## 1
Amino acid sequence: MKNPKGFLPIAAIIIIIVVAALAAGGSYYYTKTLNKNTNTVLNTNIAVVNENTNAVVNTNTTVVNGNTNVTMNSNGNLNTNTVVVNSNTNVVVNSNTNSDVTAGWKTYTSTKYGFSLKYPLTMRVLEVNETSGIILRVGVEGSANGDNVLVYNKSSNAGIPYSTVKSESGKSFVISHVGVEADQILSTFVFLDQTAGWKTYTNSEYGWTMKYPNDWTVNNSYQTTDPNDIFETPIRTTTFTNPNKYYRLLVGIKKKTDSGSIVPRTGIGAGEFIKGDTVLIGSTSMTLWNLNYNNLTSEIFNYNPSTNSNFEISNFQFIAYFDCGTAATIETIKRCDQTNLSVIPEYKTFKLILGSLVLPN
């Protein structure tokens, strides 16, 4: 039996239409199911993040699977071209919180001694000048337990319990601290930069530097050796002089391997050498020696001249002394004889200049 003409083509067309309809329906169902699953996973994960962290989640979030990047727009809707979504999303939240317990505390500043510290609003500070060396008391007003913090104008904490030494640029203080709040007060202790704005002298021969006040002057001198001197005359001397030229600081520095002397004077006056203050140069502690005569300090050295030994730091020998200047007139001699160098304001400047020394590597 023969098929009617034209039946097969018509049947083929019908079959193609049916298959196409089934494919379209399946694709629609697949896409709806995928979108439903994707929205469920994403919404669930984001909800957990917000619940656990209360963090703000960026509105532009990228979720990545092995092969496909899917971007959520600012409205929270998925792009319609989604094919596969990886439900594993990593969210990192910074849970660290920094708090400054000293925020809002008062600040005490001592321009006289060159430091500052913070203390709680419930405490008071009391400036003192006691024979024990205490210059500041910090504690609760009327407390039977005494002060929480004591600041000593000393360079050594020998015999002072629960104490810490703070040193910088020729200044040293011992701080006694007992209790948690006292430790917090100690953590706020800072030195003031009392040389800020000063000029800087740079030695052309060795490259060492020192800072000095703007109204002081600096001169260099190179002298020959006089065999009749008790001590060798300096061959390298830098002199810092105050504005009225009453006081001066003489400095001699040379490498240990260099020949010649740097002792910055040609004799020692009458008197007794007494161990004085300590100056910190970087991390090196340097002792000063006072030459006392008639109960007054007439000269101050950074070494003990009676031993004729130079002070050494790094690869250098460093000698310095502070005096009343050149005794050129009777008036000058009289003034110097009546001056106690260890208590005049220029003495503080002298120590700051010494403490500012920076040596080359």
Note: The chain has four helices and 20 strands.
## 2
Amino acid sequence: MIIEHKKNTLFYLVLPMVDSTTPASFKTGLTVTDTAYYKDGAGAWTALAITDTFSEIGTTGMYEIDLTGAELNHDRVLIKMTAAGAADSFVDFRMNVHTIDDVLDGNDRVDVGKWLSTAVTAGLGGRPAVDAQAISGSAIAADNVEANIANLDAAISSRATAAQVNTEVDSAISDARLNELMSVALASQPAAGSLLGDLTEDDVGTQRFTANALEQAPSGTGPNMLLDTTVSVVNTQTSFDLVAGPADDDALNGQGVVFYDVSNGDTPSVRVISDYVAANKRIIIDSVPDFTVVATDKVKVFVTAPGTTAPTAAQVADAVLDEALSGHQTAGSMGAEVHLAKAMLANKRVHTISTGVDEVYDDDGLTLLRTMTPTDGGNDKIDVTPS
């Protein structure tokens, strides 16, 4: 048997003795004799006298001997045990100068000072102070290392606290008025020329996006806009002459037109152009707008795909309800929830009689979707928990 042990510390050695003919049993009532030798480094093995003698622990067939620190103050110690009628046994002690216990503090944590011995001592603020010369053996290298450590320690000690950083960030947010975006009331209108000043305007105390900000390009027109102008002459509430328009008759026929009531916050009204007369830039629309159009009201004409109109509510509903659920079952989506509801009603379900547990499976009959577990809810009720 080989035992790793700390040098120069006592050890209570316990070994069983077995019968020489029936080794499956421990042998009791023996007088055990020890023969010991020690070895230091590459030196010769030397006889070692052990002060204590082996004594049996009760009638267990196990025998104890106390070895002192002095007896184990060697690199190797061999002890052979013999007794009449018993098989011989031995122990090989291999001594270590340090063990893991030597680098632990009272809370079983690594004690750096013990670990690195004289190379580390208690330093500023309880942090380890490293003696670089004790590590490297070079005074010049040690001076350089220790100077750099001192500089680093000073830099760490002078760093901003979390509270100071938080104060600086709060100040920066307030100075830039970023807090007014979400959590603080608007102190004043955004400055003209600023990003928000160009994108928003005041609407009776509420900041709203400007019409230009909501269009598709900085020029105020987008790929779907054919014309951006104003009403020049109101002939009737279905016939208007515009300030600008294309040079060809019928160029705007069938396109969507939006009238903006400039006297009421640019309230829009959408219609379809039935006819366009280029000579006086006149548009004829399909029906009277939602407000009375006057000269100077704004007009925008947008592209409508040939032969198409916006889908009705019924058409949208039909398209949604007729769409296959496959491909629309992302976790947490409405499609997934509808699929689960259908599975609960119509799919394969396995009921375990002994536990009352129901298992609901997917359309393939193999993939488990839900487990329904019943528990006693008290008051003559059963609680069912899905998982």
Note: DSSP finds eight helices and 22 strands in the chain.
## 3
Amino acid sequence: MKLTIRYGALMGAALLFTSAPTFAQVDPVAAPVEAPVVIAPAPVVTPPAPVVTPAPAPTPTPQPTPAPKKVTTATDALKPGQFIWEKRSGYNNTLRVVAVIDIQRLYVFDGDELVGFSTVSTGKKGHSTPTGVFKILQKKEYHESNLYSNAPMPFMQRLTWDGIALHAGKIPGYPASHGCIRLPYNFARALFGATKMDQEVVVLASLSKPAKPKPPVKPEPPKVDPVPQQPEQQPPVSDQPIVTPETPPAATPAN
């Protein structure tokens, strides 16, 4: 069926309702509103993580102990016969001289400051240089050995009375002396002019072995020519004969 609404009919119905008696107004009853149904999502169940036992750490393979590295110093750059000396107008302290046999070096300090260092040549096999703490007992600008064919020993500084000294000599790069400590010529001259009598000189076998102090050195006794003995005094010989007194006779006992 086709429904049609006309304007006139609509307006007439409006008038009809206008003239109709009024009724008590009744609040419209609201239709109940159904609460929306909320569907909760299904809980997500996380499966427990599998327990993984760590593999045992591999046992380390022991490594051989590396050999200790050799301690190098600035002097290792020096060639046999070379040296370094810091020229100064004066020194604040008595110089300290230290010779090290295994590396064939000699160091000179002013307090804690290094003044110079040099290559040296110490005693060869069978004539080893003694180690310890020594004192400069004698200084001679030129000296000749009393033991080895009057060998020259320029700028000699005696450490012992049995022939050990610092002096200028040949530096081949290895121990070659008869026990003395040979120095390059110009270094020996500079050191001779800077040291004093009775000051200490330390001689070490190596840097890892400290020197043991030596007992006090007794000064060399002065050489005195022996006094010729005088002949024993004899009593003067007399021309008179020597008379021995006679022995008196024994007394006869009385009866």
Note: The beta strands are 83-85, 96-100, 105-110, 113-119, 132-135, 138-140, 156-158, 165-168, 181-183, 200-204.
## 4
Amino acid sequence: MKKSKKICTNCGTKLDTGAEFCPHCGAPCRVRRSKKIHIKKIPIGKIAFAAAAAAAAVVIGIVVFSFIQNRPLSEADRAEYASALEKAQSYSDNSHLSKAKIYDYLIDEEIGHFTPDEAQYAIDNLVADYN
């Protein structure tokens, strides 16, 4: 048999070309085949189009978000925000609660029934002396 540079993966013994088992340790000889990786090339135009579409989606999202955040409040909405602030001020003056606890009371369905936005507005505009 012709000698090769093939080596047993188990013990490191040099193996003959056609050997099915290592003569030293008896481990089966495995033929290692390298796997070819095929990389599909994507044309630059498609990448540029995808990047432009993603950028456009981000810009549209930012515009819509800004519009929603900056919309004027209706008279009823303003009344709810004012009511939340009044309730928060009452909790602060009479119970000396922390802002976090007041917020929890305001959004509680049983106690305050205000939306998180209304409660946050009240906390942000609350006049309290915590000293």
Note: The CA atoms of residues 59 and 65 lie 10 Å apart.
